[in-house]
Q: What sequence folds into this?
């Protein structure tokens, strides 16, 4: 067939002519089979087998790729009865499919129908799937991760994508493009490039899988470079489903030989110049864009290559490094790192080394760097250099230091403070408490751990405290409670504990911080105050006279029940002297009193005692009653008037009795007078 058309392809799909072939992927070191890559083949009734590079692009352009993948997956999963766990299946996904939000759902459905466990499925995507819409790619990869499939970055090293982006997508593996593998056993230079690609994968924490391994020499070299897995004609060409069982039962493929012999003789003689220059440029772009500093040092500790990132960290341009020795370019730094480079040159691989770099560049602050040194070996297993990875963790370190400092500060304040700081985990278990706790409770810090501190509490307080804590642990409200503790000598002291939760970025409580304070003295004074006030109030309300206390302004601040029963309510709440008028008092001669004539008002104004005086209070309802009032100013320590008090006595009964007696006397006198008149007249 010359060039298949959309119709041809649609018909091929209709007739099920597109079938999966399976290429084994093996662990380089052991030669053990790890899984298969699914590669599509078009079995045309007339033209025979058509390779994917003649119809995949067409499928992508016509939108048939979705259907193609679906059919292919279905067949692959059906064949998977011959692929036992934990062997994996790697499936190629086109960039256009990586823009389909439904992709995770479709994959999940296909796997469910085929009863293939998702964790054994690896989806291979190329960098071009990621470039135009990073946000969307991130969402889809997230969705795929959620259903449990693994992601591989295909054809690694041939694209331009930023490694920062790759990191964001959480790939599980990198497939080193066959072009690097093909060229690597040709010259040392090209091997360095392959080493850089493999090293890059490692610096991102990914499994690397080399593609297109055709010779044992390539496999060996890749293994020495640290590449874990590989696929290629050395291990097997893609096979149809019928031959799958045979490949699986074979199980093991030739592992890399530990002592390489004449394998290099197979090396195809071709020079690095044979490599497309463009691809080198692309590789350089990746190398420079890496979020980690990378360089390659030869056995003389010269920079063979360095990426922009590391050059920036070093505070000198890339060209200032190339071909020069570390000791000459960065003498101060060299002193620190030389031992590590030496060890790596002796074949040791080192990682997780944390150092503080000397001040350099425009930023005078010392940086904290995380370093790794990986020896790179040639085909004769000889170390030919060291691959160096550098991550600047200063920012993270600063946070750690700040945290440490605040903790130190916190610890320090413990000794000076009357408060007893504590920390508690998210479950309410005491994790730390200041040594002062031991002084006041007799409990050791170990004994106080967890819920041990409750031992020191008064039995009557335990339930209340525990209940309250349960609520606070649940709601995350701040803690503020009082309880009594004892050393066991029968003497209880009141304590107050206060604290609040610390949360992480996602709002989850990670710890509680707080302190206990001895409030016993305050609590006792408070108690005494409450008691004396209660006593005063009791006396105040028990006296058989009405008592009213006012401020100098005349505002009534206090009154007892007797006063309240005698006076109208609106006087009891008087704000000014003028309001006294509302009491409706009358003088003995029956005239309404002016506000300023009231005994309390006069005492406040003149500063002299007034009374006792009798006055008639006439209420709004017309009822009235006689009272006797005695007022006096209250003076402060330096003699100024701070208020006034009036004692009001109900004399209405007395008054009326007096009036009645007067009345009786008057009547009696009248009678006597009459009697006198009578006796006179009888004379
Ligand atoms: P790829 O994903 O990079 O697949 C690896 C290619 O290298 C395959 O070519 C494989 O047959 C070939 N290969 C494997 N070992 C060796 C070796 O030792 N030496 C050499 N020279 N080649 C080797 P194939 O099967 O022709 O597939 C070509 C490309 O077509 C694949 O490249 C992949 O990008 C695409 N492709 C294949 N099947 C599918 C599919 O189902 N969906 C999509 N979207 N793309 C597919
Ligand atoms: Ca692939
Ligand atoms: Ca590939």
A:
């Amino acid at each position: 067939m010359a060039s298949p058309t959309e119709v041809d392809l649609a018909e091929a799909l209709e007739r099920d002519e597109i079938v999966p072939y399976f290429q084994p992927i093996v662990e380089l070191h052991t030669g053990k089979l790890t899984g298969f890559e699914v590669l599509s083949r078009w079995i045309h009734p007339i033209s025979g087998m058509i390779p994917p590079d003649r119809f995949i692009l067409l499928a992508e352009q016509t939108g048939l790729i979705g259907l193609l993948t679906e059919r292919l997956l279905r067949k692959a999963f059906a064949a998977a009865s011959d692929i036992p766990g934990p062997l994996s299946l790697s499936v190629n996904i086109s960039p256009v499919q990586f823009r389909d939000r439904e992709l995770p759902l479709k994959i999940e459905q296909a796997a469910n129908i085929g009863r293939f466990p998702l964790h054994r499925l690896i989806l291979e995507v190329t960098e071009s799937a990621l470039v135009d819409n990073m946000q969307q790619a991130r969402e889809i990869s997230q969705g795929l991760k959620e259903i449990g499939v693994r992601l591989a970055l295909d054809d690694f090293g041939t694209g331009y994508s930023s490694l920062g982006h790759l990191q964001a997508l959480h790939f599980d593996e990198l497939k080193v493009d066959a072009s690097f593998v093909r060229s690597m056993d040709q010259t040392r230079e090209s091997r360095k490039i392959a080493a850089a690609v493999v090293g890059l994968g490692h610096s991102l924490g990914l499994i690397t899988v080399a593609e297109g391994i055709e010779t044992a020499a390539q496999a060996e070299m890749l293994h020495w470079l640290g590449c874990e897995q590989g696929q290629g004609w050395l291990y097997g060409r893609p096979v149809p489903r019928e031959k799958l069982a045979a490949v699986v039962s074979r199980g093991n493929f030739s592992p890399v030989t530990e002592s390489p012999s004449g394998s290099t003789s197979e090396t195809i003689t071709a020079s690095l110049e044979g490599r497309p220059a463009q691809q080198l440029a692309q590789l350089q772009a990746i190398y420079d864009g890496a979020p980690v500093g990378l360089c390659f040092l030869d056995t003389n500790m010269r920079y063979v290559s360095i990426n922009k990132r590391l050059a920036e960290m070093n505070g000198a341009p890339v060209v200032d490094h190339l071909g020069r020795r570390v000791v000459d370019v960065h003498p101060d730094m060299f002193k620190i790192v030389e031992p590590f480079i030496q060890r790596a040159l002796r074949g040791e691989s080192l990682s997780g080394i944390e150092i503080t770099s000397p001040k350099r560049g425009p930023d005078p602050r010392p940086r904290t760097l995380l370093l790794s040194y990986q020896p790179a070996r040639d085909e004769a297993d000889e170390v030919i250099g060291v691959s160096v990875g550098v991550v600047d963790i200063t920012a993270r370190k600063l946070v750690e230091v700040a945290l440490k400092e605040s903790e130190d500060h916190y610890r320090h304040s413990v000794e000076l403070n009357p408060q007893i700081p504590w920390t508690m985990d998210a479950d309410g278990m005491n994790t730390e408490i200041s040594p002062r706790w031991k002084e006041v409770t007799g409990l050791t810090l170990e004994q106080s751990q967890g819920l041990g501190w409750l031992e020191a509490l008064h039995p009557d307080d335990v339930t209340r405290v525990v209940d309250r804590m349960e609520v606070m642990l649940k709601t995350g409200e701040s803690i503020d409670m009082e309880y009594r503790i004892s050393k066991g000598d029968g003497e209880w002291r009141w304590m107050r504990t206060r604290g609040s939760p610390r949360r992480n970025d996602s709002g989850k409580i990670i710890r509680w911080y707080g302190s206990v304070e001895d409030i016993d003295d305050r609590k006792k004074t408070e108690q005494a105050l409450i008691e004396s006030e209660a006593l005063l109030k009791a006396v105040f309300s028990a006296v058989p006279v009405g008592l009213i206390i006012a401020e100098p302004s005349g505002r009534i601040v206090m009154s007892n029940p007797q006063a309240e029963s005698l006076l109208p309510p609106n006087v009891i709440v008087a704000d000014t002297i003028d309001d006294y008028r509302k009491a409706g008092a009358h003088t003995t001669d029956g005239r309404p009193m002016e506000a300023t004539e009231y005994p309390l008002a006069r005492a406040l104004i003149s500063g002299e005692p007034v009374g006792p005086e009798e006055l008639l209070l006439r209420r709004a309802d017309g009822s009235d009653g006689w009272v006797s009032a005695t007022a006096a100013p209250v003076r402060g320590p330096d003699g100024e008037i701070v208020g006034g008090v009036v004692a009001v006595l109900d004399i209405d009964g007395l008054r009326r009795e007096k009036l009645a007696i007067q009345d009786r006397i008057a009547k009696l006198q009248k009678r006597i007078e009459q009697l006198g008149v009578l006796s006179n007249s009888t004379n």
Notes: Confidence is low (pLDDT under 50) at residues 259-282, 409-416, 679-683. The two ends are 174 Å apart (CA to CA). The first helix runs from residue 6 to 14.
